[in-house]
Queue: 3 jobs
Job 1
Amino acid sequence: MTTWQPDILGDGYEQLVLPLGDDPDGEGEITATLVRYQPATGAPEGARDLPDRAVLYVHGFTDYFFQQHIAEHVAAQGYRFFALDLRKCGRSRAPGQTPHFVTDLEDYDQELEEALRIVVAEVSGGDVVLAAHSTGGLVLPLWLDRLNRRPGGSGAAGVRGLVLNSPWFDLQGPSYLRNVGTAAIDVLGRLRPRAAVPGRKFDTYGVSLQHGGWSYDLDLKPLTGFPVRFGWLRAVRIGQARLHRGLDVGVPSLILRSGASRFSPRYDATIDTVDAVLDVHQIARWAGCLGNRTTIVPITGARHDVFLSTPGPLATAFRELDLWLGWLNGTGAAGEPAGTGDVSAPPRPTGEHA
């Protein structure tokens, strides 16, 4: 294993390459990349008073970790922060590899378990809260369900809680199209796994993020997204079907989502205030399949990535996260989010985050 090296995000960020061996899908040697945020404290090296708890974040499709404001906010709440770029995603993709391509979501267990092992060791056996966005919000619950079946469950592995940001729990569209489409995806995913799903690619969401002032590497996160491959989509549909049958992640969960969805081939200002990628009603419908205690909070005016929203909804999302983390650690106010439910109106934001 290599040592921690400076990361592309600059001061305070380091990365560790995790070798994973040969790709099960035949694209050579693969790696994952663990990123950590270590803000300067002014203390001598080796004398830092680092927290004994951490957040480990996993990105979605056509994504990688670049959201420094999340790391810095989490650190201000008394957590170490780590993020994982999965195999063939973001920092981890080597030349010639198909972006984000896997034919079995369970393959991600390898880097998830190694990342968790490293993070638990970094916080001296302390608690870890897992966090994920979009497709990562499907991958993590499936992995946790498997982890929870082992002796001691998720808790014995060091996991304390789960935060999902607009998780991808179902395929968009009417039920009859999902049923017919899933059958076609299953066949084509077996026969032509690397073939791209046909259809026009839209830059609506990417343009909205750019209008919002969020900057990132367009080679790692193109405006129109990477091509969706039938083999990958088949793996997603298999994972979603497993979720729909019911999981048990073994820890409390917080689900943040936008208050509304709107799909459009062209950008306009309303796209800045809705989920332009997923159907939020599907997120609400399937959230109860995670098992354990689940808190669901719609954030009015939020984007698909609620932590890349405009300032007001972003402040609300951070406030909801802080309230839930306070409850999880036994330091929240009485009556704060501690149960299962879909909160109809989020609290008024108390501040703004750039």
Note: Residues 311-328 form the longest helix (18 residues).
Job 2
Amino acid sequence: MSLLVSDPELLTAYDDVRDDKTETNWAFFGLAAGKPDRLQVSAKGSGGLAEFIQQLQKDTAGWGYVRMNMSNDEYSQRVKFVLIPWCGEEVGIMKRARLSIQIADVKNIIRSYHIEVPASHKADLDEADILTRLRKAGGANYDRQTSAY
């Protein structure tokens, strides 16, 4: 079943998260009530990963998009983006199965991200772990101590 992703609010929310000039740093894209084939903006905010995690429910499914700031020191700030396919532990089996197919349609909206972090429990979204994964995905790691041969 193809997912309808034509609502202009979807791209607006995506662009808001990507735009450094807006305070919006996360958005959650979910399925419209009673319409499992229609993607909508379910929530968005400016409280970062912690606020995003708070709004997740055990009986919901969807896709989160989060802007995260990384720094190695006070002079180097980098912005990274995380795609979070969320499927709460109480989501039914049929809905779970559809999500694996619908992600291709979601990626027509959420086109640019550094890592994908699938989650079914809030504990799967540990900020320190995500930052570590972002650093590894970014190539050079200037935080690591090197040994003298």
Note: The two ends are 56 Å apart (CA to CA).
Job 3
Amino acid sequence: MTRITPAPIEGNAFHRALGHRPDILEKWYALDGSMRFSGLDPELKEEVRRVIADKVGCTFCSSLGRPDAAKRDGRTAVAVAFAETVCANIADLPAIDDEVFDVLKQEFSEPEIVELVVWTLFMIAGSAFGALMKVPPASTDEFAEYQRWRAEGEAAARSAV
């Protein structure tokens, strides 16, 4: 049971929780779409999102897709390991040592590292919001809509290249 009454707006359970502040909701999803469908591979970002959702404990976010280690290539595995490290050290981020970034530099350029760090922290924030507000799992329709949104965004990103 969510901790607040869902806002009376269209959208999924997360939208309705965040919808009490429509200005934030609009900008949140604009930033999400901008980051998700540009730069690093959207599938890599989705796997990072899935792992973070589980680590942070957002029921809604986790219900949108489970991590799948079998589908990870080398870059995705490194990105996921980084996200797991950040989640494990969230109370003391300066404690993450330089060796973590040395590993990132073997797979990613510096602009890609910046993007990965920002994406990781943005997904932690979203999952933390969902966990704190106790946003319920996505319904079957919400799950299907999320998959459709991702597919459309990825197709648009591919055609823009």
Note: The domain at 13-154 is CATH 1.20.1290 (AhpD-like).
